[in-house]
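re: ur question from earlier - yeah i can do the single chain one, its not a big deal. heres the input i used so u can compare w yours
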Amino acid sequence: MYKRQGSGAKDLITVRGMNLLKNADVIIYAGSLVNPELLEYAEDSCEIYNSAYMTLEEIIDVIKTADSENKDIVRLHTGDSSIYGAIREQIEQLNSYDISWDICPGVSSFLAAAAAAGCEYTVPGISQSLIITRMEGRTPVPEKEKMRELAGHNTSMAVFLSSGLTKELQDELLTGGYSEDTPCAICYKVSWPDEKIIMTTIKNLHNDMVSNSIAKTALILVGDFLGRKYNNCLLYTSPSPRDISGS
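and the output i got, formated as C-alpha cells:
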C-alpha cells in the first residue's frame, strides 16, 4: 500500500507520486480534498474509490481484497501525510493484516501557501521558527498546545483546519500575546484555479474571512514574517579571515 500526497495543483505532485498513480491498479482518494485532475494519471483499467463516502473499515477491506490479488494500491491524500494525514490508524490496521506499505512524501499546503504569498517563514531577526498547529475542535489538542500557549512565542505560525473557528482563533492569538496589528494571510484553496491570498491582520481576520465567504479549505498564516520589516540573511556576506581559515 502506498500513500501519496501533494498540494492541490495537478503539476505539484512529485514525480514518484505521479508514477505510483500511473502504475496503480487501485486508487482510494480523499474526494473532499483531492484535486480530481490527479486521477487523470491513472490507467483506464484502474479501480477508483472515493474515501469521502467510506469508513475506515471499508477502506481497509478494499485494500485487503486488492492486496490478496497482488494489485498495486495507492491511498491518495492531499498535502503531506505527516501533517494531519490521519494515517496512523491506517498503518496500524495494515500491520495487523501483514500488508506491506510505503509512504511517498508530498508537498504540504503550508509550503504551497508560502510560495503563493511570496513569503519566508524564517526571516532573520524576525522569526527563526515555525509552529504548525490547529484550533481545537472535534479533535482535541494537548493542554500545552492550546493556541494561546503557542501564541506566546510570537513566532511564525501556520494554522490548519481552523477556517470555521476564526473568531475563536483571533481571540486566542490576542490572549496569547500577539498584537492586533500582527500580519495574517488567509490562503484559500492554494494552487487551485480559484486560489485567493488575502493579506490582513489579527484584528481583521474574522471579518475578512466572513466578507470573503471563506469558512473552509483555507490555511491561515500568522506572524511578523509577513510584514515589511526584515533583516538580510548573513549567508551571502563576505566571510572574515577567521571563517576562511576555519579557526
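The helical segments are 15-22, 56-68, 88-96, 109-117, 147-151, 166-176, 205-211, 241-245. not sure if urs matches, ping me
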